[in-house]
């Protein structure tokens, strides 16, 4: 007997509870890394970033149901394109603001100094 499998099968309550448990565990580990003083000072920030990235992946998989299965590839592709677009827009905006800041006349330079500087 062949059973029809719906695209959302496997994403029931148990699936959400596993995602919640993993998210809480990763949050607790990040909290422990900061407040537990078990890690050297220079490893605290990389540990928090690591736990944050893993938690992002857990939430994308368990709550947004993104993955590589055929039913989910289109949504995953849309997410990747959106992240790339946001990265380009934010990155170029920061680049323009940095160049504008570098090109601005320092406040301590007078107008006469700026004219003679050219």
From TrEMBL:
This is Cytochrome bo(3) ubiquinol oxidase subunit 4. GO terms for biological process: aerobic electron transport chain; electron transport coupled proton transport. It comes from the Bacteria. Cytochrome bo(3) ubiquinol terminal oxidase is the component of the aerobic respiratory chain of E.coli that predominates when cells are grown at high aeration. Has proton pump activity across the membrane in addition to electron transfer, pumping 2 protons/electron. The keyword Methyltransferase does not apply. It is found in: Cell membrane. It comes from Gluconacetobacter tumulicola. Keywords: Cell membrane, Electron transport, Membrane, Oxidoreductase, Transmembrane, Transmembrane helix, Transport.
């Amino acid at each position: 007997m062949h059973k029809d499998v719906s695209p959302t099968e496997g994403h029931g309550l148990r699936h959400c509870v596993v995602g919640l448990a993993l998210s809480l565990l990763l949050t607790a580990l990040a909290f422990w890394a900061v407040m537990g003083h078990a890690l050297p000072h220079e490893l605290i920030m990389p540990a928090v970033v690591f736990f944050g990235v893993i938690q992002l992946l857990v939430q994308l998989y368990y709550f947004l149901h993104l993955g590589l299965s055929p039913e989910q590839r289109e949504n995953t592709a849309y997410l990747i394109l959106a992240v790339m677009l946001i990265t380009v827009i934010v990155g170029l905006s920061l680049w323009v603001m940095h160049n504008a800041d570098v090109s601005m006349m320092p406040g301590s330079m007078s107008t006469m100094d700026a004219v003679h500087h050219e």
